[in-house]
Amino acid sequence: MLLSLVLSLLAAAPQVGSPNTAVADPDVPRPESTPCRVTLFDGVMFADFSGKSFGYTPPSGCPGPWEKIVLEGDFAVSAGRQFDRTANLWLGGVNIFFGTTPEPSRDDIAPLLGERTWHVERDLTDYAPLFAVPQAGEADIGNLVNSTYTGIITGAARLVFYPLEHGRTRSADVVLPLSAGANGGTVGLGSGADSLTRTFALPRNIERAYLDVVAESQSQDEFWYLNVPNDVAAELGDFGCTSFRETQVAIDGKPAGVAPVYPWIYTGGLDPYLWRPIPGVQALNFVPVRVDLTPFAGVLSDGTPHSVGLSVTNACNYFSATATLLLYLDRGSSQVTGAVTANTIGAPAPVVQESLVNGSDGSIKGTITVTSRRNFTVAGWVKTSHGKVKTSIAQSIGFSSVQTIDYTSAASVQNALQSTSIDSVTTRRGGEAKETVRERLRWPLKLDSDLINNADGSYTQVVSIDQGYQRSASRAREGDTVSSYVSNQVSTGDTLSLSPLFRVTGHAGARSSQHYFESDSEGRCYSRSIAAAQSSSAPSTHPNTDVLVSIVDGQGCEGD
């Protein structure tokens, strides 16, 4: 446990003056009970593309049921040159963590300045059945290490179990993976026609069902929010398929849900200095999109095999995808019946408008606008041991992207203003009881990029990005309402100097900040704002080191 302890201490609370990776995100809230810890792996080195196997045995000191289950991970990448890497953890083929890694700093500065450490957590309470029996696990952080790419990643991970002492926690009864195989693994979706589909023999008493979806953009899709329509991709020197991406969920090949794609920007994105030391929203720890499949519970319980799949509309090349199916059973019966009574999802139909003007001097100026608006209802019922339960989901999903193009001999400007909105109202009725769940998600992105052609053949790239994630939710039942709100905002900017061969020669004016706020109707409130900038007191060997310059806690929580 020595490496685990060292990494945990290094990746602890952010410190002013430190160049180490820093996030404002809170840890997973914990009960007050004394937990049991199970180490998954410790001191593992990731220096190739082979998965690292580990074993898991349930904690003997605190057998289930558990009030809370938390995954904790601590990682480091050594000083040197390295790309951001994708990180996946699997148990029994189920994805229990999905994220990316920070890029390190160069070898020519002090190790503590060049090395990056970071800590991640995920609430896995809903996945409790996965941890009830021994399982084989695998850690996948593919990492090329050679004479050029020298940064080595090391890591440790553990599960923390909190015994159930008060009340009750209802986790899923069955957890099923949509992954590459028995050991897990993502599946690549190279085009919109590709799908990740698995067929299951399911229990016959399903009362509720959900699918946790993660689709990570890679290759020509990595910067999908800057992609342009195919007909102008060549002349703009960009990738095609437009700036619209959306994950479609299907049951038995028919539409069953929608999971919009969050515009994650990894720590090498556009300009690595943008993300030192503060990474983009969720860049190190993706939040899955949970799709409610409960209206299909009766159909899924009919005793025949059913397929569950997902695809990404407009995938160009490619998305790395996985999903987890969570089933909640009617423990009072061995067979339920039911039907789908409404399903108006259909297929997405984004609208593309091009207003580009080609000048006689070779310039290209104008805008490209892509919009999508979907309003649909999915409803169904299931007859359970406690009566007939009806579920209706009304969802409105909006997408808008406006790209401003200004390409001349002097500079290439490409700005993007994008927004995704997801509004859901889920109503469940069983007898006289009624529950209404409302959720609103907002994902704004503003990106300005200006590449200037200098007289000496060199280039100057000026980039600024504002990226957000907001979620508000409420649950009303029998006169009681509980609500919650989360806001995560990252703003960053930098000016990068490039040689005529596009090699980085320096940067200036780097500044970034993150503000994370969350509260709920039960009195919990958390707020942290952090800011970073280039340090004038950095070592002379690397005067442009970016460090944390401020930490402000509790803003907006006063009086709570």
Overview of the molecule:
The protein has 560 residues and is mainly beta. It has a domain at 1-166: Jelly Rolls (Sandwich), CATH 2.60.120. 4% of the residues lie in helices and 53% in strands. It has four helices and 28 strands. Strands 18, 19, 20, 21, 22, 23, 24, 25, 26, 27 and 28 form an eleven-stranded antiparallel sheet that branches. Strands 9, 10, 12, 15 and 17 form a five-stranded antiparallel sheet that branches. The chain has a four-stranded antiparallel sheet with strand order 1-8-3-6. The two termini are 38 Å apart.
CATH architect. name of the domain at 1-166: Sandwich
How far apart the termini lie comes to 38 Å
% residues in beta strands: over 45%
**Coarse morphology:** globular
Helix share of residues?
under 10%
Reported for the largest beta sheet, the result is: 11 strands, antiparallel
Give the low-confidence spans: 5-10, 107-111, 538-543
Helix/strand/pairing category: mainly beta
Number of strand segments = 28
Q: Over the alpha carbons, how many angstroms does the gyration radius reach?
A: 24 Å
Q: How would you state the average pLDDT, rounded?
A: 93
Find the CATH topology of the domain at 1-166: Jelly Rolls
Tally of helical segments:
4
CATH class of the domain at 1-166: Mainly Beta
Give me some keywords for this one.
11-stranded antiparallel beta sheet, 560 residues, Jelly Rolls, 28 strands, mainly beta, single chain
